[in-house]
Amino acid sequence: MSSTILSTKRLSLAQKELVLHGNLGLVEYDAIHIRLVDFNFNGQYDCLVFTSQNAVLSYVRRKKLATPTLKGTVGNRAVCVGEKTALLLERNGVEVLASAANAKTLGQLILEKFPDTSFLFVCGNLRREYLPCLFQKHNIRYKEVVAYETTLRPRLFKRKFDAILFYSPSGVQSYVALNALANTTAVCIGPTTLAEAKKYTHKVIQATKPTVENVIVQAVKYSSTAKNP
To answer: How many angstroms separate the Cα of 155 from the Cα of each of 5, 31, 216?
Structure first.
């Protein structure tokens, strides 16, 4: 009998093929809902900060819809978290000065390379505290704008999965709202998601790269090892 994993995000066809090639069964759903929102800001900033692709999508959308009410200006340069976020920025004509695998590493890069730069932090309503605290501690001028909203979509599952794939802390929160995670292996996209999952289970795995594809790869490796210890 093949193992079955649960993805807390609906996968693309190519991503589903990775699961299929790993001889795994798949159940998928969207544990969270993302809504892009309009935003405004005043003042002038040197550089943008993004920690998610959703923030980039909202920013690009806002630029296309720009009206006289968008009073602020910002340089066409950015620092960001994630390779895919960087690629999305570059595809939309934004110069990426630096990218990192996580917010902590990005914060260190900012302190080392851009200590006198002012930043517009384009984020979601559930953004983590690390970067704002870092900016305040080191007196880095910044403005924060909420560009998208995340809402939880809890769903009850009356079965056990061999592994559950998580892509954000809010995805973990949504799952545990109606389900127990204890004694289930959580495969997580990055350190903040891993930290959230650890609140509910000791069986956790972190992807070696912060991509959906690598989360799937780690789930396949885990399931293969579990079947053939």
So the answer is: 16, 8, 21
Q: Exposed, middle or buried by CB within 10 Å (0-12, 13-18, 19+), for 182?
A: exposed
Order of strands across the sheet that contains 163-166 = 25-28, 4-7, 163-166, 185-188, 204-206
Distance between CA atoms of residues 40 and 62, nearest Å: 9
pLDDT digits (tens, 9 = 90+) for 65-91: 665 445 567 888 999 998 999 999 999
- The structure's pTM equals 0.85
1: DSSP letter: -
Residue 112 CB burial class (10 angstroms; 0-12, 13-18, ≥19): exposed
What's the start-to-end Cα distance of the chain, in Å?
Answer: 16
* pLDDT one-digit tens code per residue, 80-139: 998 999 999 999 999 999 999 889 999 999 999 999 999 999 999 999 899 999 999 999
**Contact 56/128 with Cβ under 8 angstroms?**
no
Distance CA 1, CA 61 (A): 46
Task: Say if residues 219 and 195 touch (Cβ distance below 8 Å).
Answer: no
When computed from its CA atoms, the radius of gyration of the chain, rounded to whole angstroms, is 19
**Helical pair 103-113 and 130-137, crossing angle rounded to 10 deg:** 20
